[in-house]
Amino acid sequence: MTTEKQNMEKKKIKTTEKQKEYLKINLKECLKTEFYESKTTTIKNERFWNCLIASILCGENQKESIKKFCNDIDNEVDYIYLEAIPEHPRDKDGDTHLDISFGNIQNRKSTKNGIEFNSEKNQINEENKKPDDKPEKKPWVCFVEGKLYSDCSKDITHDPFRNQIIRVIDNLLCFHYLENKNDKQSNKYFPENLYFVLLTPRAFKEHKKTRLYGYKYLDYYDEENKKIKHENIINDLLEYRDEINDEKYIEKIKKYNDSEKIENNLKINWVTYEEIIEDEYKDKLQNYKLEKGKLDIVNAIKGENEEQLKFFYDIFKDLFKNLDNIIEVPKKIMPFNLNIVKK
Predict the structure, then answer these.
(1) Do residues 164 and 153 touch, judged by C-beta distance below 8 A?
(2) Environment class of residue 9 by beta-carbon count within 10 Å: exposed (0-12), middle (13-18) or buried (19+)?
């Protein structure tokens, strides 16, 4: 077996057993009927679409797919994480479930689907960077927030002034590997390149101001000049922080501000489900006599384009057949313990 084939086979989606079973049961139920004939909304399920995109990111054209999310990255990854949980940046925060994540990432020990920065191949301390490295050679991570029909949450349980988009960006900025898990003050290693990507149907990207996440995207990213709006992100990260009385967190975020980490390292992008699907299923698109650039999930689900709905039904059938092959459930690895239990 060639190395290329071996690499292709080992690229998988990582998620929990619970998530895998949810997808299997609900997709099976969804595909029982020719729903495009009954025009029901059984595929109006965000988890199906996010899993479909994750499966495409595991495919033969992985490099090209990753480039759509991270424009200057030209390499591959072994795993695409679905509903993974990074370590939250503040003690009072609850867990953030990332729709899709990939890059220099590994599972956190003692967790079912917790993740952390994987610094083994590119161990670059924040104090010891390698500025001459090409972007794809530097450690990088990508967090994707997928929204089918739902809008981003306008508040968070432990912080009513913070929206869901800034919360994911917050987790991305603080994503790290702790050298000594028993010592919070030990060396921390951070990825060099950080990518936050909004993933939505094409219609909502074309009409950005129909959703709160569209306004926040425009708040944080200058489309005309293709630049991060650094100050707006800092302001939203720090707003009302004094009321929460988390001084360590405020100090950490101000450090990002002083070092211009956000301006230099963070990149924001918006991609659509349709553009990823169109490039992956070119042949099937032609079989249905559909044009690239014309897929419209919103209208298809509404029942206004029966041929497109049939096309989507077809690719979800393929996804369902391959779920067991493409999903790997990580084992919960417990830290090594020398304590001897006396009977």
Answers:
(1) yes
(2) exposed
Contacts of residue 228, defined as CB under 8 A and 6 or more positions apart, other chains included, come to 220, 221, 222, 262, 263, 266, 267, 268
Per-residue pLDDT, 162: 72
Give the residue ranges of DSSP H helices in the chain: 3-10, 17-30, 35-38, 46-57, 62-69, 164-173, 202-206, 212-220, 230-238, 241-244, 247-259, 261-265, 273-280, 282-287, 297-301, 306-326
The residue ranges of every structural domain in the chain are 3-328
Exposure string of 209-243, with b = 16+ CB inside 10 Å and e = fewer, is eebbbbebbebbbeeeeeebbbebbbebbeeebee
> Mind listing the pLDDT tens digit for each residue in 159-169?
666 788 998 99
Q: Under 8 Å CB-to-CB from 75, ≥6 apart: which residues?
A: 63, 66, 136
CA angle 73, 75, 81 (to 5 degrees): 90
Structure tokens at 289: 């006599």
- pLDDT tens per residue, range 264-312: 789 999 999 999 999 999 999 999 999 999 999 999 988 888 899 989 9
Q: What is the pTM of this model?
A: 0.86
Task: Identify which of 5, 7, 137 has the alpha carbon closest to the alpha carbon of residue 78.
Answer: 7
Helix, strand, or coil (residue 197): strand
